[in-house]
Design brief:
By secondary structure, the protein is α/β, with parallel strands linked by helices. The chain has two domains: 170 residues, Thiolase/Chalcone synthase (Peroxisomal Thiolase, Chain A, domain 1), CATH 3.40.47; 149 residues, Thiolase/Chalcone synthase (Peroxisomal Thiolase, Chain A, domain 1). Helices cover 31% and strands 25% of the residues. Helix 3 crosses helix 4 and helix 6 runs parallel beside helix 7. The structure holds oxa(dethia)-CoA. Oxa(dethia)-CoA binds next to helix 2, helix 6 and strand 12.
Length: 328
């Protein structure tokens, strides 16, 4: 049987940081409030000349190098993003040209913070169907471009960054299970307006009207509660489907929206702190990029090692949620 394994990972965080002290100068907030309510201390911010594909490119280069795969060997590029360089073409196409992935197909996935999990799930299907050997999966965002820095309920959590992984086909020998074991995704569009960008799309194209701002609008408190429930349920469903239990999981790589959400989900699942990969303090919430960045950070630090059972789980605007179980 063919398995879809994580052959290599990479990440890129812009150097510039927006600190809580910087935000105190922009909106009515305090370092203490932000740290206590979110766990965030600073946010990587893209330089003026950097767009999403620039961040994606640097993360993807690292992932290819760590996988030992050349650009020409990549069969497909999937980029998860909600903040592409242009409405179209896709970031994946820009990346295809820039990396020199001459034989790859390319497309973007719009699944907000669940983008990386969704893209990995798609990649797994191509690989397990025997169609592709190597798929490059990227989560990349420049949320600073769609964040309103006069809105203290949103500007405190969002950031920029990119993470990438090369998923490769590998024949399973005996019962040596590696790579993606199972996944779960779900959606409920009924609550789309709890977290969305109202203006700039085909519904409200006139962004000169104040109510049509092309910036993120969020009902944080409602999203918080829904996120905790949906991520907990998704993980439970996935564990049941795959026949694993929470104790067997070595590492949990959750979406990094708010430390209190991560803690609440961990409490529900009875996952101890030492199994959590948490990057929210330094990197904040860069939507589809948080999970591949956290994964790569933990791999580079020697925490996540080959053979470890890793659980990823996320929630975002849509509403969408999803989880992925992987033997790294
Ligand atoms: O990435 C995808 C999904 N996104 C998320 O998962 C984000 C989920 N939500 C959150 O992380 C949190 O809801 C926030 C961090 C956005 C807000 O924290 P909260 O604990 O839910 O605050 P709240 O909205 O319930 O507001 C509590 C109080 C309010 O004041 P009153 O009405 O009690 O006087 C707010 O006006 O805190 C006030 N507040 C602030 N105060 C200082 C809201 N934002 C701020 C702020 N600084 N930045």
């Amino acid at each position: 049987m063919i398995q879809a394994v994580i052959q290599g990972t990479g990440s890129y965080l812009p150097e510039k940081r927006l600190t809580n002290a910087d935000l105190e100068k922009l909106v009515e907030t305090t370092d203490e409030w932000i740290l206590e309510r979110t766990g965030i201390a600073e946010r990587p911010m893209a330089a003026e000349e950097q767009a999403t594909s620039d961040l994606a490119y640097l993360a993807a280069q690292q992932a290819l190098a760590s996988a030992g795969v050349t650009p020409e060997e990549i069969d497909l590029i999937i980029v998860a993003t909600v903040s592409g360089d242009f409405p179209f073409p896709s970031v994946a196409c820009l990346l295809q040209q820039r990396l020199g992935c001459t034989k790859a197909g390319a497309f973007d996935v719009s699944a907000t913070c669940v983008g990386f999990i969704t893209a990995a799930q798609i990649a797994e299907q191509y690989i397990k169907a025997g169609k592709h050997q190597h798929v490059l999966v990227v989560g990349a965002e420049t949320l600073s471009r769609i964040t309103d820095y006069t809105d203290r309920t949103t500007c405190i959590i969002f950031s920029d960054g990119a993470g990438a992984a090369v998923l490769s086909a590998q024949e399973q020998l005996n019962d040596d299970i590696h790579g993606i074991i199972g996944s779960d995704i779900g959606a409920n569009g009924e609550h789309f307006d709890l977290l969305y960008v109202p203006g700039g799309g085909s519904r409200y194209p006139d962004t000169t009207k104040p109510e049509n701002k092309p910036k993120i609008v969020m009902n944080g408190n409602k999203i918080f509660k829904l996120a905790v429930h949906a991520m907990t349920d998704s993980v439970r469903k996935l564990l049941e489907q795959t026949g694993y239990n929470a104790e067997q999981i070595k590492w949990v790589v959750p979406h990094q929206a708010n430390k209190r959400i991560i803690d609440a989900v961990a409490r529900n699942l009875k996952v101890p702190d030492e199994k959590l990969i948490v990057t929210v303090k330094e990197f904040a919430n860069n939507s589809s990029a948080t999970i591949p960045i956290a994964l790569d950070t933990a791999v580079k630090a020697g925490r996540i090692q080959r053979g470890d059972l890793v659980l990823m789980t996320s929630f975002g605007g849509g509403l969408v949620w999803g989880s992925l179980l992987v033997r790294y």
